[in-house]
Each structure stands twice: as C-alpha cells, then as structure tokens.
Amino acid sequence: ESTLGAAAAQSDRYFGVAIASGRLGDSVYTNIANREFNSVTAENEMKIDATQPQRGQFNFTAGDRVYNWAVQNGKQVRGHTLAWHSQQPGWMQSLNGGELRQAMIDHINGVMSHYRGKIVEWDVVNEAFADGGSGARRDSNLQRSGNDWIEVAFRTARAADPAAKLCYNDYNVENWNAAKTQAMYAMVRDFKQRGVPIDCVGFQSHFNEGNPYNSNFRTTLESFAALGVEVSVTELDIQGASPTTFANVTNDCLAVASCVGVTVWGVRDSDSWRAQHTPLLFNNDGSKKPAYDAVLNAL
Ligand code: XIL
C-alpha cells in the first residue's frame, strides 16, 4: 500500500491524525491529511472550552468543521475529550463539588447527544492520574468533587451514546514500569470487575526526553488488552522523529490484536504543539520524513 491509512486498513486498523480546524484552508495540509489518514481527532475543537464556552450554551461550530471535513473525506472520527482538568472554560474552572459534578454530567450529555451515533470512540476522561511515582490521582477540581468522578463520567457517557466506544486516555503511561501506568491499570481492572462501562484505553504516546519510548510498551498494550479493552496510540509524536522509534511504536500496535489504530498528533512538524521537537512524519514543506517511510514499511 502507498498510504498510511490504506496500509493500516489491511489489518483492519486505522492510521489517524489530529486536525486543527484553522488549518483546513491550507491545501498542502488538507492534501496530506486526506491522502494519508483514515481517522481524525479534533486537536482542540471538541474540548470543553470549545464546545461549552458559556454554561448551558453549547457551540459545535469548530467541532463540526473538523467532523464534517473528516466524514466528507471518508474518515472515522475519535471524540476528544469530555472530562478533563485542562482546557475547561472559566465558568467550569470556578465550580466545585456537587455543582461541578452536575456540570460534568450535563456537558457529557450535551456533547455526546450532538454527536450521537457519529463518533467511533470517545475519550471520555483524559489525564486523571498524577505524574511521578505516587500512582495517585491528579489533583483537580474534578478529583476533589469525589473519587468516583471517573466512573460517573463513563456511566453517563454510556447512556448518552450507547454506540460509542468509551475510552480513558492519558500520557506517560506507555512504560509498563511507571507508577502512573500501574495506577491506570488498576483502575481499568477495577472498572471491568465492577461493570463500569469502559471499552478502550488510549496511550497518548508523546515521547521525549522526559518520557522516552521503552520496548516494554508492547507489554503495556498487551496487559491492558488482556483486561478486555481495546487499546490505541492516540496522540503520537516523538521528539526528533527517530524512524526506528516510529517503527517500533507501529510494530507494537500491530503485535497486539486489540490495538485498533495509531493517531499522530498533527500533520507537519510546523503543525505540532511541540514544533521545536520536529516530532511528526512530514516536513514543513509537506515532504515525507524518514520516519514516514519507517512507519509505512512497518504497516
Ligand atoms: C494540545 C493541543 O495540541 C494544543 O494545540 C493545545 O494548545 C493544548 O492541547 N494531551 C491531550 C491533547 O490530550 O488534547 C493535548 O493537545 C496534548 C496533550
């Protein structure tokens, strides 16, 4: 196959990309995105601040722009993200306790009903665990609303769109030996045991000096898959874009039957939130980097 998406589709997987609505007028960008990828995640447009800027007033203009571009070009869409400590609108940042709990439920219902039946996988909860060696939950207004906020989010999401696969998504959870990985594993195992509706786990996979790729990533993917969830690489970028590391990540997903796909977090280096790391598959002029060939060869 000659594109990433078509190559991934040979094993019923997707190869996706984060799309920024503000770049959809750039034909170099859209030509690559349309040619190479068969799944789309909105980089920012479906987040809480974008979709509910004022309490009770939903705005899907930018989210729909990304969604419509994707679907008109034959791509599936990952939803990102419904409950998160970051990119909360100001009104939500100032809420706490039971009021925040209800606002989270209302937000999940509002966004998921707009996209009901249209989103293959939703990142229901994003980045709920702390960095470092504690294995604790991250402190946030959501966490302070009660430790059960994550399962409340998942139960709400299941009722709001029963067809969507419901994912937990986090970063620095690729290394099997990390406390954060083990904490996430314990939560997913507990949810599966107690029947909390969770279908998938997303590994953001922002690899850099602080979170280097480790070959035990495959063990991580296998271990989560063994709990009965799908796994995916949801926001891949690699500082310096080592072709070997990109190929290793691709091969790790391919090696795990329940790994459904890989999403890279942008098209060209200049589109990346970490542009100075040159972490993506395409140069600023749209040409393919060595990492691109490494991924295509691996698929
Ligand atoms: C990033 C976007 O790429 C930036 O444009 C934005 O300014 C901040 O968020 N984890 C996530 C993504 O789940 O939503 C983040 O995206 C990167 C880290």
UniProtKB/TrEMBL annotation:
What is the E.C. number? 3.2.1.8
**Known catalytic reactions:** Endohydrolysis of (1->4)-beta-D-xylosidic linkages in xylans
In alphabetical order, the GO MF annotations are: endo-1,4-beta-xylanase activity
Keywords per UniProt: Carbohydrate metabolism, Glycosidase, Hydrolase, Polysaccharide degradation, Signal, Xylan degradation
The positions making up the signal sequence are none
Per UniProt, the enzyme's principal EC class comes to hydrolase
Task: List the active site.
Answer: E235
- GH10 domain span: 1-298
Coiled-coil positions are: none
Sorted alphabetically, the Gene Ontology BP terms of this entry are:
xylan catabolic process
Provide the family line: Belongs to the glycosyl hydrolase 10 (cellulase F) family.
Protein name from the UniProt record: Beta-xylanase
**Taxonomic lineage:** Bacteria, Bacillati, Actinomycetota, Actinomycetes, Kitasatosporales
